[in-house]
Amino acid sequence: MLNSLLFSFLAWGGGVLLVQRASGFGDLGIYYAALRVKAVPESLCGVLLAPLLPVLSETCGRRDRSAYNKTVSFAFAAYALICIPPALLQACAPWLTLLPFGQQYHAGQAVVRWLMLNGILFGLIGPMSSILISTGQMWLAQGIGLLYAALYLGLGWWLIPRYGAAGFAAAGFCAMALANVPTAIILLRQFPDAMRASRWLPMLALSTLCGTGGLLLSGAAGPILSLVPAVALAAGFAAWLVWVHRARLSPASMPLPVKL
Question: Tens digit of pLDDT for each residue in 197-221?
Fold first, then answer.
């Protein structure tokens, strides 16, 4: 709850900085239009994986490490499958995101790219806060939230006046990436078996490679041609993810509260 209130304040503060620019209100409209599209898979994760925290807490409480590791692996696989492929597609072809909003929004492609990079990152780190809370490390989750807020404020104060809505989106991505480095290191050290089973490091490497390659290829191609690498990379990542996690994503292996 505290982190939610803090993040709401950060969004408000970033918007206040943005509207100080000459084109600030128009940029703010582009930012929130793209943010609304980005939020669709993330909201789906929230609905489908709402039972994740109680399952993790229960298995941790009865010290069932095998069930706990399976739940962690399923959570990382589900978050990545729902969030990363659509974010990859839109990062490489940002005009798709802005297409429903009209021609006047097409100047915001840099905003879309930064927001979708944030979406890829969310697909990689989505379950981490639940893992920390389930093991009784609430203080650490709150500390990561405060670190994120401090980074967001500093980067936003520097980037938004210079780059507008693109700076707003870039500040959020950079702050989230930097703030979650300690979380990733802690989880890799505390739960090496679960992180290894979830293929988290290969997912991180492949999503980084796909994102970087897609941005480079799409920058050298026109809007229509950019769809080719965008679709290929998103579909390729999804196919790899389903293949390596085929056992964990089957209905029989899902944690009990979300079993089909």
Answer: 899 999 999 999 999 988 887 766 6
